[in-house]
Design goal:
single chain, alpha/beta, seven-stranded parallel beta sheet, five-stranded parallel beta sheet, 14 helices
């Protein structure tokens, strides 16, 4: 294993001294992304040239990349989303993809809960007003006993459900996978997505980005939501039609939103991210100190296990 060449494209991993040293304890020849910026396609091709294995984050790994990097045998995913990897291409070029699920679930679910409370209690808006010397005493509404809709009941959705238990909310759920026993055990109400949009005070998305989910949240969805409702997206930016969310917030069609992901990252629509009823964060959902270490250690372990086997 010592003679294998490894490349790390992800910025968060490359910045972390502990993870760097841990990876180098297994592999002598390692190159990190010390530019500390997302690599474009040409830079990726050059960066991955002549390496045997790679740890990647959100980088687009497609046929255009894989046909140029002849030695690459394995990609270890840092993080949990896999929509940036073309699995047809990895199969064609015989590149193994190794990954673990759920390693950053608490990091994301805590951000979701924090955003829900900030929106419902009006703390975000009134804090910004107070900084402008405006004294607004509107304390919003309590989360307790409200209707929460969760679309996508995987690792993060389930973790959020556990965090919501003390608030005694009525939780409506929707997922393409049947999970009747889990729903029954946790007093969840399985409904259609349309019913969630109509009934819930909070709608939060926890699905992957797929052909089924891209553009799923659009003007039609916001139109049927309650005027007092809040929308949360910490999943993937392209699940939401961003222009439609901008419209809904501008026109007061919904009360507010919190998003951690965008259709373009970093976002360029400054009018959108400046909206007063929008909490926007720079894709930090899975980036707590604890999650960075957990995702990094998992990526290292999966890489080491692969080379032990092959």
């Amino acid at each position: 294993m010592e003679n294998k060449k490894i490349a790390v494209t992800t910025v968060a991993f490359s910045k972390n001294q502990y993870l760097r040293e841990k990876l180098k304890s297994h592999f002598k020849c390692v190159q990190f992304n010390d530019s500390l910026k997302r690599l474009n396609q040409d830079e990726l091709k050059s960066f991955l040239e002549n390496v045997d294995g790679a740890i990647v984050g959100l980088d687009e790994i497609d046929e255009g990349i894989l046909k140029e990097v002849k030695n690459l045998k394995v990609i270890s995913k840092y993080g949990v989303g896999l929509n940036n990897i073309d699995f047809n291409a990895t199969e064609k070029y015989r590149v193994k993809v190794v990954y673990s699920q759920g390693v950053n679930k608490r990091s994301v679910s805590e951000l979701v809960l924090g955003n829900i409370l900030s929106l419902m209690r009006n703390s975000y808006i009134t804090s910004n007003k107070l900084k402008k010397q405006e004294w607004d005493k509107n304390g919003g509404v309590q989360l307790s006993e409200k209707n929460v809709g969760i679309i996508g009941v995987g690792n993060i959705g389930k973790d959020l459900i556990s965090l919501l238990k003390p608030f005694n909310c009525t939780i409506y759920v929707n997922d393409i996978i049947q999970q009747d026993e889990y729903y029954k055990r946790n007093d969840l109400i399985e409904v259609t997505k349309e019913e969630i949009y109509k009934k819930c005070d909070i709608v939060t998305i926890h699905t992957p980005s797929t052909d089924l989910t891209k553009g799923m949240i659009n003007k039609d969805v916001f139109t049927v939501m309650k005027k007092e409702a809040y929308f949360i997206n910490t999943a993937r930016g392209d699940i939401v039609v961003q222009e439609d969310l901008k419209w809904a917030l501008n026109e007061g069609v919904i009360a507010g939103a919190a998003i951690d992901v965008f259709d373009q990252e970093p976002p360029k629509d400054y009018d959108f991210i400046s909206l007063p009823n929008l909490i926007c964060t720079p894709h930090i959902g899975g980036n707590t100190k604890e999650a960075v270490l957990a995702m990094g250690e998992s990526a290292i372990k999966n890489l080491v296990d692969y080379f032990k086997e092959y």
